[in-house]
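Lecture notes, continued. The same structure-token format from the folding unit now serves as the input rather than the output. Read the line below as a description of shape only.
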């Protein structure tokens, strides 16, 4: 069974982009599909691939949809360059290892699957009878779906994303209120991060749909970008606020959590372990204090360098909240005006979070 993350791996995603609606290559494949002639197209000219090619004739001409359509009328395979910018060979015979396992029954598709497994190149098989396009690359086989069905799935995923994001926003507001009261526990930190990762995971699924949709996915992309504003940044600042792991960056820690979520092993205890906040469920009730990166970043006109100076000087958000104007003024880069701005800004933020949480 091929896993979803293999299909949407960085290497295979470039092939989905190559065949996305609106691309020249997709237009050529669609022409072959509509002509009901069938076809076998190999994208790549590695030595391993060319060793399997016999017969046919070399043409080495620029790729155009009409040329692909005309050449597909012949029975043999068509070989293109690795970026599909040129058609190199037409009417070729492919002779992969017959001992390689294949799950396909038709000659064209069985040959395509074996060539892909033997060479690692992308092989596109256009079925004359079933009128479907199947991609083979390595051990992956992937059938191109109709735009209408992809759009339905993308819109359903957007609705799910909106629901999860709304829950995440409420959890962030609650966490903010608790941070001002210095009453945060490990469980609350881990729960917000788990919600954020879930949102990012759904967003990744939608990104995959957008790749398949090509230029038809513009509106989906706009909606996705709007819903993802600050989601990853908030998660990174939370990690920076609470993590005791010094040998990894917040981005590396978030990536580890994201991968674990994909493998369905990410729970609150797992996240606590990554952040070095505990190793068992009993540690989830322990109280922790934020350093203040996330809240201080919300203040207007306070650059990250100043935030770093504040955290270096006071250590925790609670200490910043208790600091006098004179103590804030002593921090490098903060004058009296900025000290008043920080103090008043944090006070307003606290009041706003209380109001939002009460609503």
């Amino acid at each position: 069974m091929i896993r979803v993350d293999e299909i949407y791996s960085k290497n295979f995603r470039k092939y989905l982009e190559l065949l996305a609606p609106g691309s020249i290559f997709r237009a050529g494949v669609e022409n072959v599909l509509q002509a009901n002639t069938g076809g076998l197209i190999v994208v790549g000219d590695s030595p391993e691939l060319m060793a399997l090619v016999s017969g046919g004739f070399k043409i080495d001409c620029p790729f155009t949809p009409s040329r692909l359509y005309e050449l597909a009328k012949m029975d043999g395979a068509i070989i293109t360059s690795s970026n599909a910018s040129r058609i190199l060979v037409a009417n070729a015979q492919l002779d992969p290892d017959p001992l390689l396992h294949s799950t396909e029954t038709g000659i064209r598709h069985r040959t395509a699957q074996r060539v892909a497994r033997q060479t690692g190149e992308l092989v596109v098989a256009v079925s004359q009878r079933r009128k479907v396009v199947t991609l083979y690359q390595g051990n992956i086989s992937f059938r191109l779906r109709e735009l209408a069905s992809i759009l339905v799935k993308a819109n359903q995923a957007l609705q799910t994303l909106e629901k999860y994001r709304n829950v995440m926003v409420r959890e962030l507001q609650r966490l903010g209120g608790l941070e001002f009261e210095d009453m945060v526990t490990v469980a609350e930190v881990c729960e917000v991060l788990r919600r954020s990762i879930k949102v990012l995971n759904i967003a990744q699924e939608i990104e995959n749909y957008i790749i398949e949709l090509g230029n038809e996915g513009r509106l989906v992309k706009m909606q996705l970008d709007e819903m993802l504003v600050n989601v990853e940044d908030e998660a990174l600042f939370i990690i920076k606020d609470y993590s005791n792991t010094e040998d990894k960056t917040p981005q590396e820690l978030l990536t580890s959590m994201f991968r674990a979520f994909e493998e369905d092993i990410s729970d609150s205890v797992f996240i606590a372990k990554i952040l070095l906040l505990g190793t068992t469920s009993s540690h989830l009730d322990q109280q922790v204090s934020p350093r203040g990166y996330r809240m201080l970043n919300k203040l207007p006109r306070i650059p990250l360098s100043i935030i770093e100076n504040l955290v270096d000087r006071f250590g925790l958000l609670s200490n910043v909240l208790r600091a006098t104007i004179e103590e804030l003024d002593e921090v490098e880069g903060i004058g009296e005006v900025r000290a008043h701005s920080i103090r008043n800004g944090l006070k307003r933020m606290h009041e706003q979070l209380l109001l939002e949480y009460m609503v």
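Point for the exam: The first helix runs from residue 4 to 7.
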